[in-house]
Each structure stands twice: as structure tokens, then as C-alpha cells.
Amino acid sequence: MPVPTPPVSENPAVRTRLPRIGLLGVMQPLYDAMIPGITEHQAAYAERVAAELSGVAEWTVSRPVRGRQDAERAMRDFETEGLDGVLVVMLTYGPSLRVTRALTESRLPVALANIQPDPAVTAEWDMDDMTYNQGIHGAQDTANALVRAGTRFEVITGEWQDPHFAEQVDRWARAARTVSSLRRLRVGVFGYPMNGMGDARVDETALLRALGPEVHVIAPGALHRTMADLPEQAVRDLISWEDGTFDVDEKLSEEEREDHARMQLGIERLLEDSGCGAYSTHFDAIAEDGRFARLPMAAASTLMAQGYGFAGEGDVLAASVVYAGHQLAGDGHFTEMYAMDFPSDSILMSHMGEGNWRLAREDEPVRLIKRPLGIGGLDDPPTILFRYRTGAATLASLVALGGERFRLVVAEGEVLDAPELPALEMPYGQFRPSSGVRGCMDAWLRAGGTHHMVMNTGHRARDWRVLCELTGIEYVPV
């Protein structure tokens, strides 16, 4: 059974799009007299590279950069257009001092594409061919300048028409898009964080300076007012969409369905109005307010499926990394480690009732159930129930180390085709780390990995590593 498609969010803060990348082609006027028309010849090469890579990014190709003013003008244009990063391509040898200031002063993530027009040196080459293909020492000169300036950058060497090269550019471009998205991110927090939970606490100004996310506190009263002001048709439309999307529990009353729908739509409207691409709610902040009948469990699941970052208990770090998971690898899912299962060398993954149902098994229906929940002391919250899709998966935890130092703890593995757990009325699955439960957990705990994390399908450690290199986050695979 295919996983159904959720409603499309109108919030630009959560839309996932192709990365928007500038291609900065670098050369110099030295060769003009020797090879008339070389600038146009190599400009056409830059356009061919962009066309070859059109499936991984939207490209803005600069005019060939032949001097410092050209470079600084091109980089200003890239930044003005709001691009996600810049791929530097040596069209011939280009002296580093022509581009050093432009690249080191820019906030755009940078990658050096160490490529050349022709993949092989042949006996037919003449001096023109030597000149067209001499970008390698321009890349060396420029990389040296970036290293000396302390500028972070990625390097991708290869044949530009090779699918493996496109795969590497795709990985870097998605990481660049994630960097740009995090710098614009606002995380809405409804109420306050969970008392006593230390691994989610972070210096908000340090987080803003280092990675970009801004914390935006939303009073529960704003949610209550927004729920009351929603048009009845919007509520009916959401319930109708759920009827066609989920296997809906007949025990759910009309009142329960409507109240849940109003909570979901109210949260989404507040996030849109405040420009938030991620959010977190804490059950006590909702329950102790006194105006709400239930917790917004199903709301969190569908909003994650729409592209919002989410975390429970007021955890800004986890909400940010779930959002990053959407941008970097697609379909980030909020979860935590519940218990170890040593016979299967796996870990039971779940949370209180929230989960991105885009990660559901395709051979089982996604259910919307009536589910009792003692936590919070409120009425039963409608909950979306599914088992995780089997196959390769990756966990990532964002750790605040103090000040502007952050660490990402990453574990690759697989979700097992494990037996059902009939009494577990919340999304769940069993994750077997590639390093085994004992090795993974020893390393996870030594690294300070948090108890809230993002899961993505596929083996994504290399994606997260590139993101860490671009942002200065310490990368710890376990």
C-alpha cells in the first residue's frame, strides 16, 4: 500500500525544493592573445557542466571570472539572489588572489569542483587543449588560500560527466541547502521545555550565532484563540482528507475528531503566521493550561509529514535536527530509543505518539486510532499509528557542548522486519545499528548523544558528515 501524500503546506519555511547553486567559473586574461575566443569557449564548458548537473540543483552560472572585481560582483549577485551555495570551477588556471576575498567573506557554503573539460590526456592534445584542461593547479592555489583563511569548503574531484561526480555534488548541494535553511529557521515553542530534561537545553543565542535557528515562544493561549477562530469548512476538509488517507478507528467520536483537527490547523496557522519551519510542544504546557481537552499527537505526525521539524517536550535542538533531516535527506522523523532488544541486536524506537507517517511500512495501513494516554491527564488524543518501514535507516542527534560548540552523533543501521507489538499504540520500529547495540550505545553515550533524535531512511552518514564540515559541527559516527 503506497504511503498517502499529506496536504501541501503553504508555509515557505518548510517547502523542500532543489538546491539553488551558483557556478563560479574562474580563469584569467593571460591566455586571450594566445587563444582568441578562449573566454567564450570556456564559458560554454561551464554551461555544459551546469546542464549535466541540472537534475541535482537549479544553477545560476556566472560570466567567467577574470579578475577580483568580477569575482566580488558575481558573489554579491549570488547572495542577492538568495542562493544556497557556490560551486567553484576552474575554467583555466585562475590565480587565487583574484577570488580569495570574495570566497572568504561570503556566507555561502563553498565547494571546489576539481574537474576539467576532457577526462583523458591524449596524444592529439595541443597547447590549446593543455590550457583548457589546466584547472587542477588553479584549484590547488585556491584551496591553499581558503585553508590559510580558515574557510570551510568541500572538494569534489572527478569526471564531470560521471554519475558518481553528480552524486557527490548532489550530496554537497543538499547540505548547502540545509545550511541556508537552518540560518533562516525559526522554531516555535508552545509553552516551555520539560522541567529537569537537561540534554535538550541550549543557549539560544549561541544556537542562533553558530547554526542559525531562532527560538520563537508561542503562548498556549494563542493556540486556543486560533482554534476557536478557524472556519468550519477547514475543519471539515481536514477530517474528510483523513477519512480518505488513514484507516480511521470507528471508536473515535465526532467531537474528538473535530477537536484534534482544530488543534492541528491552529498550530499550522500559528507556525505560518510566525514564519516557523519547526516547532515543539511539551505535554505539561498544554495540559496545565486548563483550556485544552487533549494533546496534539496526530497533529505532530501530519505536520512532520508536511515538512515541519518537530520535537516533544520543548526540545529546540531535536526540532532543528528533524527539520535539517527534511532538508538534507527527505522525510525526517522524530523518535527516541525506548528499549534495547539484545536477542535481535536492535533498539525499540518510538515516542509518546508522534511520528512522520511518510516512513510507514508500505504493506500496512496507516491508522488513526482512539488511544488512551495517561500522560498529561487529559482526554484520549487521536493518534496516528504505524510501524516503521523496514530497510536502511540513519539516526542523528544534535548535541550542545556549551558556547557555540555543537556535535552531531550519527548511527547507520537498518529497521528490522520485527514481530508486531499489539499493545504499543504509538509509531514504532526496531533499529539494528551497523555497529551492534553494545558498540553503538557505548559510543553514543560517550559522545553525549541525546535521547531525542531524527531518523531518515537510507544510509545518510555521508550526507550528515558534509553538513557538519560546512557548519563546523563536530561529526561523531557511532
Q: How is this structure best described in words?
A:
Helix content is 37%, strand content 22%. The protein has 478 residues and is an alpha/beta fold. It folds into 2 domains: 20-182, Rossmann fold (3-Layer(aba) Sandwich), CATH 3.40.50.10940; 185-477, L-fucose Isomerase, Chain A, domain 3 (Alpha-Beta Barrel), CATH 3.20.14. Helix 6 (163-184) packs across helix 15 (461-471) and helix 10 (254-274) crosses helix 12. It is elongated. The mean pLDDT is 95.
Let me know the number of strands: 19
Helix content: 25-40%
The CATH class of the largest domain is identified as Alpha Beta
Report Rg: 25 Å
- If classified by CATH, what would the architecture of the largest domain be? Alpha-Beta Barrel
Structural class, judged by helices and strands?
alpha/beta
Largest pleated sheet: 6 strands, antiparallel, barrel
Number of helices: 15
Strand content: 15-25%
Amino-to-carboxy terminus distance: 34 Å
The average pLDDT is 95
Structural features:
Rossmann fold; L-fucose Isomerase, Chain A, domain 3; 478 residues; elongated
Layout of helices and strands:
Blueprint: E1 20-26, H1 38-52, E2 58-61, H2 68-80, E3 85-90, H3 100-105, E4 110-114, H4 127-132, H5 135-148, E5 154-157, H6 163-184, E6 186-190, H7 204-210, E7 214-218, H8 220-229, H9 232-245, E8 247-248, H10 254-274, E9 278-281, H11 283-287, H12 297-305, E10 309-312, H13 316-329, E11 333-341, E12 346-350, E13 367-369, E14 383-385, E15 391-402, E16 405-415, E17 428-433, H14 437-446, E18 453-457, H15 461-471, E19 474-477
